[in-house]
Amino acid sequence: MKNKLRIYRAMHDLTQEELATRLGVTRQTIIAIEKGKYCPSLELAFKIARFFKARVDDIFIPEESEAQ
Amino acid sequence: MVKKLNVKRYELYRRAIMIAVALLVGLSAVTGEFALAISSVVIGLLILYSIKGRVEQVLVDERAFKISEKASRRTIQVVGTVTAIVGLIMIVLGRGGYPALTDFGMALTYLAIFLLAVYLMFYRYYSWKFGE
């Protein structure tokens, strides 16, 4: 699963620490999501999308093999 | 007004408390004062619990739970398999002329069975909880 979290975070001029605090997760979780090492739960994905006033699939993009 | 802590300061305090408790437990082992060991562990845990509630940032989240789930699963697989295999080897060796090993082998095998039974019990519980 690819994602544009880093881009959205930069657009809103937030540090990883600030975003983590706003979302109620650890900074390590934000780092892991941005690196594509961790796929967030649906709950967290929706929380992220709501926070950035975007849709989930604007931020999270399934890979070709995952989408099929 | 209770002063809030950040994660770095919390980690610093946590390590200091752990070192202090370890030193006191070591001291009590040397002097034979076991009340000191128990009281230092209890007091250490209470202090840790009280300062944990003052941390501003999140310490445990869904990723930490997921890591814990994966680690638990691997632990069950490794400990269960190794305990069962070593236990059976001990029983076989015990019957081949080393009777002292039989009891140890039986204990390990029972431990593996107990581990599997507890795992199956929780597996059934969570299957039911998550709608099977």
Automatic annotation (TrEMBL), chain A:
Keyword DNA-binding: yes
Protein name per its UniProtKB record: XRE family transcriptional regulator
Organism name: Hadarchaeum yellowstonense
Keyword annotations of the record: DNA-binding
Residues in HTH cro/C1-type domain copies: 5-59
GO-annotated molecular function: DNA binding
Origin superkingdom: Archaea
From TrEMBL, chain B:
Transmembrane segments: 12-30, 36-55, 76-98, 104-126
Keyword Membrane: yes
Listed InterPro entries: DUF2178_TM
Pfam families, per the entry: DUF2178
Keywords: Membrane, Transmembrane, Transmembrane helix
Signal sequence residues: none
Source species, domain of life: Archaea
Name this protein carries in UniProt: DUF2178 domain-containing protein
Species annotation: Hadarchaeum yellowstonense
